[in-house]
Amino acid sequence: MRVSSSSKHALAAFVAILTVVLSAPAAFAQLGQVDTIARQMIVADYDTGAVLFEKNADERMHPSSMSKLMTVYVVFKQLAEGKLRLDDSFPVSEKAWRMQGSKMFVHVGDRVKVEDLLQGVIVQSGNDACIVLAEGIAGTEAAFADMLNEEAKRLGLKDSTFRNASGWPDPEHLMTARDLFVLARHLIRDFPQYYHYFAEKEFTYGIDVSTKKPITQGNRNPLLYKNLGVDGLKTGHTEEAGFGLVASAKRGDRRLILVVNGLKSMNERSREPERLLELAFSQFDNARLFTAGSVVDEADVWLGSQARLPLVVEQNLVVTIPRQAKSSLKVVVTYDNPIPAPIVKGTPVAKVTVSDKDGVLAEAPLVAGADVQQLGFTGRIGAAIGYLLWGAGKQ
Fold first, then answer.
1. Are residues 136 and 98 in the same domain?
2. Active-site residue, 212 included
3. At 56, which CATH number?
4. What are 360's strand-pairing partners?
5. What is the pTM for the complete model shown?
6. Residue 367 exposure: Cα atoms within 13 Å on the Cβ side
7. Which of 4, 64, 68, 102 is catalytic?
8. How many domains is the chain built from?
9. Per the residue annotation, which of 4, 23, 65, 305 is the catalytic one?
């Protein structure tokens, strides 16, 4: 295994420039410390997954209506897979019509379009709309809850259990703040074509029987009405859980996701997430160290038609860093030296590691940037002698 000397020289100036401003977190490790009145909290970077702040993020809690995000995820997936269409409609059962709590105000016997039901869930937090979707997709709400649990397992939600479609209080209906972050991240990344529904500030559905006027309800997410860059996702509240919020905010190229729960009032749910987002945006930044497709280093080739092989990073290598950090980054490329021919372009042949004094911050594979043919017999003999006499580059 070789630590590339050319990598040291090529990256020395780069690292030196970054010394004053860059240090980075280990993946999903907390970068900063902050006090919060929330019982559970996490603020993390959407792109890198770096956790900026957290408190009791792995404590199982009652997620209330924030767990509706799992229902929405399953509906989005059905739409994306062509199993549903937005203009499909489902019948309203008596169970859905009688459902208490926040409501879309559907009427028993009616048929409601999937798109209207989605907006009823996302904007109006309608428990009734959740049941209509659950019964329309799975037959019963219990069967739909099984679907939620299966999908949660696939997404890697390690500490979540779903017993209904709406987040209605149930002692076994539990999630963690970290799982809600993971779920929100998937919603944004997996279904960008539908994410716009979360930014809608109001939705009108049905007629008030007493006033004969359309029923318009506003989005309960208080951060949508502030100039914070917030464009989703979902609030929640029960007496036991307190007031909660999953929110995502984008400023420039950066997107953060926040989860809070256990707040005491709607006012706290408006003020505390705003404070945490402002701190997170002001104290941390993302640094793109290498762009997808760029040559990070060159490796020696053993018995090949060319003596050097470009080592290419396939994806952007980005780390989240404290803006005022004073520790420097260390960037090292490792590979078996020399790399024997033949070599197929795109084959993983090396690794780039980014670290600081606290350990490894990020790793990424490097692939061969070109095809390299093996020399013929005579060429291999001459190259081998040359390598033994003069080393790399003298083949």
1. yes
2. no
3. 3.40.710.10
4. 355
5. 0.82
6. 13
7. 68
8. 2
9. 65
